[in-house]
Amino acid sequence: MKSNIHNNYQYDKTIFEKTDFKKIKIKNSTFEECKFNNIDFSESTFINCKFTDCNFTESNLSLCTFTNSKFENIKFENCKIIGINWTLLNWENVISPTPMSFKSCNISYSSFMSLKLRNLSIIECEIYEVDFTECDLYGTDFTKSDLNGSRFQNTNLENCNFSDAINYNINPNENKIKGAKFSIPDVLSLLSSFKIHLNK
Fold this sequence. Notes:
single chain; mainly beta; Pectate Lyase C-like; 2 domains; four-stranded parallel beta sheet
């Protein structure tokens, strides 16, 4: 179990647990098959780093910056990941078809603007005020998530799963929703853009 992280270092199958790494700055390090359990990375900066096949559990990554860093097959569970600008990562030549997944996380106040991230898994998450403008989210699973205030415009939501998701505001005229799954009664929110009246 490691209690520190260094620049220009490669970590393989390393376990980091119950450690405060708040506001650290890491450059040019690689993490492969590592586990981060109950770690505080809040307000930290990662520059030119790469994470592959890593798991984050019960950790805080809020307000982190991942400048030109890469994620491949990363799993987040019960994590706080608020205020992330995901567009700063390097998404070129990412091999994994699903570079990351979220389960029971808070990813609010973040931006995925214009990213192509198909088949994401964002299940049972708090997704408040997140910007998905002009994203390609084809096949993404939003099951049981709360999307209060999140923005969808010119977004590809084809074949996405919004089963038991709540508080989404999606204009069918401004987004692609063919094949997407929705649940009653929240699916009725899709009609709000048509300015029609529903009788009970």
